[in-house]
Automatic annotation (TrEMBL):
The keyword Cell membrane applies. It holds the Pfam family MMPL. This is Membrane transport protein MMPL domain-containing protein. The chain crosses the membrane at residues 12-29, 258-277, 284-305, 311-332, 352-372, 378-401, 428-448, 661-681, 688-710, 716-738, 750-773, 779-801. It comes from Pandoraea vervacti. Residues 666-797 form the Membrane transport protein MMPL domain.
Length: 808
């Protein structure tokens, strides 16, 4: 390489790095491409019905910005005072778009006035059945036409003058408002639980719950509330629930692990390189390789996905040890050579780097095949990081070499010689066969103790204290955070309400049983019956009483009603006959519908026909949510046979998907094994390929057995980790074998190659070993699998030297 070419490459690389940094900063700051903490964004689509996926997002978005707070104290007045102080603090914080603490004075007419114009078209199932029975008895002449009961309850929601027989009152009290266990007191919504008075405060965040600035503002409010309002001596307690807290906790945990892994791994790699090479130049070049790979990985991920999840960044921090491997192998290969000699030696070193890159790329590429956004994003990040690091090493680093490349220290080479002598001797000849058989036999008890667990909660951990607070809030208030629901679809609003009524009839029947999987349900059809049901109920009242208004008035007068009122009420049915049935859009515009509006999805644009490509007709959809869910599987069966009704349980669906992928991963591993064997066979022959793969295969077997001995479950993430053990672990056998190929009979050069292999393994173990201590279950499974697998792959790597005569 001429001096001009060397200078050009240096300038170009520096300009490229500056450009990458500037572009990433622009994407994050100007284009506002986010660092994502929303776990839902990492979950795959699991529903065959695309509208079900829309429904999951619809429900999640409707509650993600909600914050529920309960403030409790032993004394009611203390609780009210604390709630008032919290309300003032929350309103002044600019963290919340809405704060609802005190409620207006209870106006029973607020509810009845909305439904009053439709009073003759709204009947509960019980009243409907009673009227039908009365109609049959009246037809046989065995009963008078007078209603059986009068509306005489002092707690009636309606005015007796408007609803003397209580039909509307029964219908109003049948609405699911009663599922909330709160009562108004002095303007506060309160509940008594275990000797404490609890006050409810509802809020909505000022912005997305997954926005960092929003999380910080909300946290400041609660930190202030805890210090200023929470008082252990008076028993004041503040409970909170909301996605913003889980998102903030996930972000905090991820950032902490990102810093810990990134800093410790980088410092460890720096110390190792300084000790091994005693060269600041090589250290800077190695760190530059890491930086370049990380920048390219982050930029590629942002371009592909439009966001970068913190989970990916934490895994990316653990990738540091692998990206620097290529630089270490290059430095070891050219150590002790002059600059020109080092540049000419690159073609000799490149085959080993290419094979190692190919196996690693294969392992991560299989992650990208899995239709799971979390694994795909990690795969894209890793592939971009590894490929760019390789290109940086073989194209950029030669331009930055000094006049002479520092060689490995003698102590490092001596350590490598002793290690190779011990392990090569241990694994040579029959002893190697005995060691292999012993490993397999030691694995058998561990394999027998294996069990699987595909729960989606292995993706990320949740703060136990937040979960406990949510459970207490749900118990006290009745505000249920369940994510399961029935999706109801039809081609019109009317058909949708009818289908939901069919579902509701089944659910009512189920809740009446002692072994009911649910205690109740909430749906739009409870608030707005279908037009057909309203017309049928009106006709039923007419046939039972109002078709003969004079006879009804006479019987009412005989029962003690004033004559003018009796005649006016008997005639009201006919006077209000022109009132159109209640519609969903009227209900949605009514303020009282606000807590239940997320149940209505309304018109949904249909997907294009899969065969013709023509657009389908629009669909209407709504959600029906269970309350007091006890058995999700039984609840799902309640909708069996109902057309247009789908039970959606995202967590269960994803867990089932994890199980399918985990089983399929065995086939993927076998396919990857065949591909890697073919790649190795092209260079080493089939016997040499098998010998090179043997260390990694034994390591994978031991990893699985270790999980059995530790009684840890085998999950999808463990299976994917094994895929990476195959892709990464085989590199050490390759490096060892290639080093001997280059060294020939020169034992010192062979030892130098071994030292490079040991250093590569050390850097990888350092970073992935830290990942094994992650608080995120998914990354912890990755880390533990990779740490054990890579360590054993390194120790058993001398197996690859069992057929030296077959080297090519």
């Amino acid at each position: 390489m001429t001096p001009f070419a060397r200078t050009f490459r240096r300038v170009f690389v520096c300009a490229l790095v500056i450009s990458l940094i500037s572009l990433i900063a622009w994407l994050l700051a100007v284009r506002h491409l986010p660092l994502q903490t929303n776990v839902l964004s990492l979950l795959p689509e699991t529903e065959r019905n695309p509208v079900a996926e829309q429904a999951v997002e619809h429900l999640a978005s409707s509650v993600s910005d909600r914050v529920v707070v309960l403030i409790g104290a032993n004394d009611a007045s203390t609780a009210y005072t604390a709630a008032a102080r919290f309300e003032t603090l929350a309103r002044a914080s600019n963290a919340f778009a809405k704060v609802r603490a005190k409620v207006p004075p209870v106006d029973l007419a607020f509810l009845s006035n909305f439904y009053l114009p439709h009073r003759f078209a709204l009947l509960t199932p019980g009243d409907r059945a009673e009227l039908q029975s009365q109609l049959r008895r009246a037809a046989s002449g065995s009963q008078s036409r007078m209603p059986a009961t009068l509306a005489s309850s002092p707690f009636s929601l309606t005015n007796p003058a408007d609803d003397p027989f209580g039909w509307l009152d029964h219908w109003l009290t049948h609405l699911p408002f009663g599922q909330l266990r709160l009562l108004p007191d002095q303007g506060w919504l309160t509940a008594r639980d275990r000797g404490k008075t609890w006050v409810l405060v509802l809020m909505q965040t000022q912005g997305s719950a997954f926005d960092t600035s929003v999380q910080q503002r909300v946290r400041r409010v609660f930190d202030q509330a805890t210090s200023q309002i929470g008082d252990a001596s008076s028993g004041v307690e503040i409970l909170r629930s909301g996605a913003v807290f889980h998102a903030a906790d996930a972000r905090s945990q991820a950032e902490m692990e990102l810093h810990r892994i990134g800093i410790v791994a980088t410092l460890g790699i720096a110390a190792l390189m300084l000790w091994a090479f005693r060269s600041g130049r090589l250290l800077v070049m190695g760190l530059a390789t890491i930086a370049f790979g990380t920048l390219c990985a982050a930029l590629t991920t942002l371009v592909f996905f439009g966001e970068l999840h913190l989970l990916t960044l934490v895994f990316g921090a653990a990738l540091i040890g692998e990206t620097v491997d290529y630089a270490i192998q290059y430095f070891v290969g050219v150590g002790g050579l002059a600059r020109d000699q080092a540049q000419r030696a690159l073609p000799v070193i490149r085959p080993a780097l290419r094979i190692a890159l190919g196996t690693s790329v294969l392992g991560y590429a299989i992650l990208g095949v899995v239709p799971f956004p979390a694994l795909r994003q990690i795969a894209v990040f890793a592939l971009a990081g590894l490929l760019s690091s390789y290109v940086f090493v073989v194209w950029a680093l030669p331009a930055f070499l000094g006049p002479k490349v520092p060689q490995l220290r003698g102590a490092v080479i001596g350590l490598a010689q002793r290690w190779l002598l011990i392990w090569r001797g241990t694994l040579a000849g029959r002893r190697g066969v005995v060691v292999g058989i012993a490993i397999i036999l030691a694995c058998l008890p561990g394999w027998a103790r294996l069990h699987t667990d595909d729960d989606v909660r292995h993706l990320i951990s949740r703060d136990p204290s937040l979960v406990a607070q949510e459970q207490v809030i749900s118990r006290i208030t009745g505000i249920d955070g369940a994510t399961q629901f029935w999706l109801v679809q039809a081609d019109s609003e009317e058909a949708l309400l009818r289908r939901e009524e069919q579902l509701g009839a089944r659910l009512d029947e189920a809740t009446a049983r002692e072994d009911a999987p649910i205690s109740g349900w909430t749906g739009v059809s409870q608030f707005v019956p279908s037009m057909q049901r309203q017309l049928d109920d009106r006709a039923l009242l007419g046939a039972t009483y109002f078709d003969a208004p004079e006879a009804l008035a006479s019987e009412m007068i005989h029962a003690g009603f004033r004559p003018d009122f009796a005649r006016q009420y008997a005639q009201a049915y006919h006077n209000e006959g022109e009132t159109p049935p209640l519609r969903v859009d009227q209900w949605l515009a009514w303020p009282g519908s606000e807590p239940f509006r997320p149940l209505w999805m309304g018109s949904i644009a249909a997907q294009r026909d899969a065969d013709t490509g023509a657009p389908g007709s629009d669909q209407f959809a709504s959600l029906t949510r269970p309350s007091g869910l006890r058995d999700s599987a039984q609840a799902a069966r309640l909708a069996d046979g109902l057309p247009g009704v789908t039970y959606v349980d995202k967590a269960t669906s994803i867990s089932a998907l994890f199980a399918r992928y985990r089983v399929a991963a065995i086939q993927w591993f076998a396919a990857a094994l065949v591909i890697v064997a073919m790649l190795l066979a092209r260079r080493y022959g089939w016997r040499g390929a098998i010998a090179t793969l043997l260390p990694t295969m034994l390591a994978c077997a031991a990893v699985i057995a270790t999980f059995g001995y530790l009684e840890l479950p085998i999950t999808l993430f463990v299976q994917m980790g094994l895929m990476l053990v195959l892709g990464v672990g085989v590199n050490y056998a390759i490096f060892l074998r290639e080093g001997e190929l280059r060294a020939g009979e020169d034992e010192r050069q062979a030892a130098i190659a071994v030292a490079g292999t040991l250093m590569s393994a050390a850097t990888t173990l350092l970073s992935f070993g830290l990942l094994a201590f992650s608080g995120m279950p998914s990354l912890q499974a990755f880390g533990l699998t990779l740490t054990i697998g890579i360590a054993l792959s390194l120790l058993l790597a001398p197996y690859s030297l069992r057929f030296p005569e077959l080297r090519q």
